[in-house]
Specification:
Blueprint lengths: L2 H4 L3 H19 L2 H5 L7 H19 L5 H23 L7 H25 L2 H12 L9 H16 L3 H5 L12
Pfam families: Ubiq_cyt_C_chap
InterPro entries: Ubiq_cyt_c_chap, Ubiqinol_cyt_c_chaperone_CPB3, Ubq_cyt-c_CBP3-rel
Family: Belongs to the CBP3 family. Belongs to the UPF0174 family.
């Protein structure tokens, strides 16, 4: 992991990935998402926001090789380890965790595909529809989906401006969603 950048110091590597993952989790827990934009503050709603922010991080590093690719893989591993721990904390037994992990992995990768397709097309309406379908499937009409889609486009632009070297050092900053 990150040998080219840090030699073999696993503690430094862990500190970097922990810092990055901490920023991703903090961004996914921004209160505006839940209080103003009506993302359900439930385990599934928190999964949706963590998945979205993991997608944004992965999207930022997409196409980069070397250390960026290694960090992206390490954080993906951390994300799925975190999901495993969360399932166990929710009381899911050892026998049920693998089946649920497979389902969550399918959900995550399905979402990343639909979000990526909408971003690549520059289609805010398609992104809002995908977000609504995933975050509030039972709501029918979710007016805040457009605000969340706007935030995603803003986050993509903000992350694109951040140098890879800063990310390699453990720093990444997500924009603050604006109440509305």
């Amino acid at each position: 992991m990150f040998k080219r950048l840090f030699g073999g110091d696993r503690n430094a590597n862990r500190a970097i990935t922990d810092a990055l993952y901490g920023e991703i989790v903090a961004a996914a827990r921004q209160p505006v998402l839940y209080s103003d934009w009506n993302v359900p503050d439930t385990p599934l709603g928190r999964f949706e926001m963590l998945s979205l922010h993991m997608f944004l991080f992965q999207h930022r590093l997409r196409g980069e090789a070397g250390v960026s690719r290694e960090i992206a893989q390490e954080l993906t591993d951390d994300f799925f380890t975190d999901l495993d721990h969360s399932l166990r904390e929710l009381g899911i037994g050892d026998a049920g965790v693998p089946k649920r992990m497979k389902k969550l992995a399918r959900m995550f990768y399905g979402r990343t595909k639909s979000y990526d397709d909408a971003l690549e097309a520059g289609d805010r309406a398609a992104l809002a529809a995908a977000l609504a379908r995933n975050v509030r499937p039972e709501a029918g009409d979710w007016p805040q989906a457009d605000a969340l889609a706007g935030y995603v486009f803003e986050a993509v632009a903000a992350l694109a401006r951040q140098p890879s070297a800063a990310i390699h050092g453990g720093a990444i900053g997500f924009p603050a969603p604006q109440p509305g």
